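ASSEMBLY PREDICTION REQUEST
Request ID: AP-0331
Submitted by: J.K., bench scientist
Number of chains: three
Total residues: 1272
Priority: normal
Notes: Please return the full assembly, not individual chains.
Input sequences:
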Amino acid sequence: MESQAMIKDKPTFQGLTNNVSLYISKSHASSRINKTGSWRFARPVYENKTAPCSASCPAGNYIPKVVMHLSKENIHGAFRALIQENPFPATCGRVCFHTCESACNRGSQDQAVAFRCLERYIGDMAITENFPLDAKSLAAGNAGNIKVAILGAGPAGLSAAFFLTRLGFSCEIFESTDKAGGVMQWGIPSHRLPKSVLDHEIQRIVNMGIKIHYNHSLDAEFMTTAHHSFGAMFISPGLSVPLTMGIEGESHIHQGLQLLMDIQTKDMPLKQGRVAVIGGGNTAIDVARSLKRLGADPVIVYRRRKQDMPAFAQEIVDTEKEGIEIIELKSPVAVQKIDKGFILNLVSMAPVTEKGNDGRTRVMPVDNTPETMIFSEIYSGIGATLHDSWKADADAPESAIKLDHVDFHLKDIPFLYGGDCVNDVQSVTHAIASGKEAAIALSAYVDSGIDSVKKTVDICRLGAGKALSMEIYLQGERRLNSDHVVTDTEINLDYFTSTPRIEPGHIPLKTSVTSFKEVEKTFTREAAMAEALRCYQCGFCNECENCRIFCPEISITRQNGKKMIDLDYCKGCGVCSVECPRNAITMEEEK
Amino acid sequence: MKHVIEGSHAISEAVKLARVDVVSGYPITPQTHIIEAISEYCANGEMKAKFIPVESEHSAMAAVVGAASTGVRTFTATSSHGLALMHEMLHWAAGARLPIVLGEVNRALGPGWNIWMDQSDSLAQRDTGWIQLYCENGQEAMDTTLFAFRLAELVNLPVMVVIDAFFVSHTFEPVAIPEQEHVDDFLPPYEPRIALDPDNPFALFQMAPPNVYMEMRQSIHRAMEHTLDIYHEVENEFDAVFHRRYGMIEEINCENADIILVTTGSATSTARQVQMDMEKQGERFGILKIKTFRPFPGKAICNALQKAKKVAVLDRNFSFGSGGIFAQEVKGALQVLSQGPVVFNYIAGLGGRDITPDIISEVYLKTRDRDLPPCGSEWLGTSPRDEN
Amino acid sequence: MQTLNISDVDFAEPGNMSCPGCGASIAMNLALKALGQDTILVIPACCWAIIAGPYPMSSLKVPILHTAFPSAAVTASGVRAGLDMKGDTKTTVVAWAGDGGSFDIGIQSLSGAAERNDDIIFVCYDNEAYMNTGVQRSSSTPYGSRTTTTPGQGWKKTRKKNMIEIMAAHGVSYAATANIAYPEDLIRKFKKARELKGGTRFIHVYATCTTGWGAPSEYAVKIARLATRCNLFPLYEVEDGITYTLNEKGDTPVDAYLNLQGRFKHLSLEDKAGIQNQVDKDFAVLKNKLSVC
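STATUS: Completed
Returned structure:
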């Protein structure tokens, strides 16, 4: 449109121009001259905190970080974060009893995040796609190639080798059998842990340059001579001697552990008839479910109530689903052999109010008149104990430093005991905790002497609990995290709509009870991402940028990929802290 | 060439010739004809402008404030209650130093409703920072409107072109409508010193704290003083093109007068006739017409009046509790004289009442025949009425 | 949770004069991300008249024209007319007014601009009272609120004016509600409004004022989110005054919203139940409009 303002070619008078005083209210500066930071009473500080899952994980998995990477479809990143703390993701992703999920804050909104299955998904991806171990980011330091002898190639020994090697120790493992893996190898049936998965994860550790001596006798002679050749010993012999019940006719009872081992090593004949499995722990469950797969009709007999069973809850549920009966509150008192099998004499038990020394429910016989049941076979699944040859040795002298998962005896060289012989809970994950704690303790000892051991272990704690972090020991960013364990009320639930937990499901029951095929399926990629998105990532900044987006003061910016709070302008309103969905920003009072 | 047109349309024609870009308008008697004509020019393409038919006079001024802030030439028109409603934005326009031209048709304010001539509306806007130019007839309205754009854009102040309701606005008179090229010669395209521009962002008319507000107001004052300084030169430019000029004031026989009548607007025309008649009768009668009320040309007025014995100020307005507004201003201007003339103040013609030759004569005779004015102002032509 | 994807290009600057936790500041920051550099803002008397900076500062990187309280819309109309005469078609003219400058003193000029269908975006950032002057009630103040002019037992007994329906009734091409707690939705709406050139577009943005509402500053966004979750401030769009689109469905009882704010703390359980009842009815009316289309 032609306008007056656009016509500029007409002659005009030259005499008069607009040179009048014109002082008006027109800006000529940015509001940046106004340092509103001086108004502030409290300042926001980026402070990653400890997620309850991590704090409860004996292996100290950095779960929020793992899930963050996974949710951004960075599976390599997720694997790197996992392997930093745990050498057995695919194994733990199957057999771990997942305290992380019991501790999960999401449980109070709807259901816990299925982290165990996510861990398995990542672990399996690492196996099928052969992810490399990023030695550079994992390794740290050189402990002068001090040689460490590791006794027992179970989860504790392998973990110790994994962590010690990263810290610059030179490890040799001495194993009495012909296979590494310990209880993972012969104690956990294939329907829970396929051996190919385990073998891959063991091989990944061995490939770090660890020598394993198989079929090596770990006798007294070895113990007395080994310390001449090594700078330290890590001793994790495991529990190999089945417990006995001390009842009449006990010789008629088969050892469940032996059955499990036989299944791994021999062709087993099919079984039939009703078979009793005595016990309430994971061994009893594994034995019963294995017997089912061998064709028998197993029944679990347990002296306490079902809810008192030390076996993992999900395992109990799955066991019953497979049609295995659990008889509770019956205690065996005698076994008699008859023509067609065995008579098991049982007395009825009832719980009493006071608890036992171990904190578990106590039961007492209701009356002493036993009832009888007839079985074709009877198995014991009540657990195992340390072999006598280790007992005297492992008994801690007064000088020993008792850590949570390791006993540290300083003899002429350090002797560190770990794994089942030390842990109050016998699990793969606790064994990993032993391996990690031993590595940290030994490294601290080598660097700074015996007095630094406890102190160093304390520094590596997650949320001041028993879980330790190798990343913290290695001075990684995780050391900056606060010990505060995030609670469910500290999560901004506005960002998390209730969505049901996703689980990968099981193979059909018909297939599972007739074979040793793995029962549980793994996540699809989509399901894994969806489940990862359910995770609050408690206390862990996952770069969601809510703080930047909602900052009324444009005071949160990204510089060189890092978020910065410009305290020249931040008024301390606290919106960033509240709108952080996961409590990764703390308001600190100005002094 | 001269055309017989009404005073309102003289303004409308001038707005068209000034190539105004944005016009806003809201109807109010007796102003409506101005914007009617302009909207017609816009509709038929005679004028390439945006016409914004706003929903109130407040908005009429706000619209041109917005438009002028982008650096284009703007116009609106109003009257009476409309101007009163605009009051806030009059301050805004002046404080913003926007060269907006406003056609203002003097009209009384209610209640009771009164649509006729009265200067109270524009004079009540005395302190808003607007230049106020009062016109006597259609030709002057035309010329003053063109002049107003040039002046406004030279001093960054808004200008009110004031005409009398009906006596000028609705009266058809022969008016010389200049050629467009002559207007373009006189009125160059507007070159704003400040205009909104996303490529060069700044905030305009923002909060001004005490440490700067006073200086900003002083800047308006300086611009008003500057207006007095350059007014004559702008008239020279106008005269050079159109061969007419009006002056901030016009002196009619003031040199030889004992009594000078001070008038504004169309009443001046009536007074001219009476003055001629009186002069023939040997009376030493002069007239001072004030055209420029803001800035008030006090010095020029003082010079014009200082030789007279008596001054009679005819006010078509009233400041209740005080007196006629022009009288107050004239008295103020004469303060500098140690022995200045005596000032008589007469109030006449409020709310559309005629100021007849008889009233002018009465003013003259009453002034001549008394040595001193009565206390306060004297209301002429009023009669006692029944009260409720 | 899904993360928000919001540009980090800002047209606002730090150092502004807003109270800590200012919802109106958040609203502006987000809106300008959508509007971009080619924007002229017209701001009447309101909090933003101060937030934008007293002389000589500006807290925004786009031009601002400050205008008088009643005149946001028409001043914007004037700016638009001026730009049109200059041949500038790329610049978007946005009037940015508080609830007083939209619902009350500004409604005449807003209605005028909307009826003329002037080519502007009018934004009401709604903090539900005259906050800049110290929390006096406006016609946007909701039922139940205490303000300095509805104090004590004189708390506001009348309802909030339904501004978007008033604007939709003008038949404008686009009228929408938006909320600082829903940044992606807000930005989408501002982009849409920017693209619908040629007529008046109206966006009603919910902008918490924790100072005036008696709430901790850190709850600015939380409260705003609850307003929508409780259906007190439903997010929806109306095109040409006819086609309604609902963007969010709330399912939270109003107590969650009311209990966070001091301005409602005097309300009895019956009062709150009454508010819930009204909210449910209003939402039902809105849903009916959806089904009509």
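REVIEWER COMMENTS: The longest helix of chain A spans residues 428-448.
SIGN-OFF: pending second reviewer
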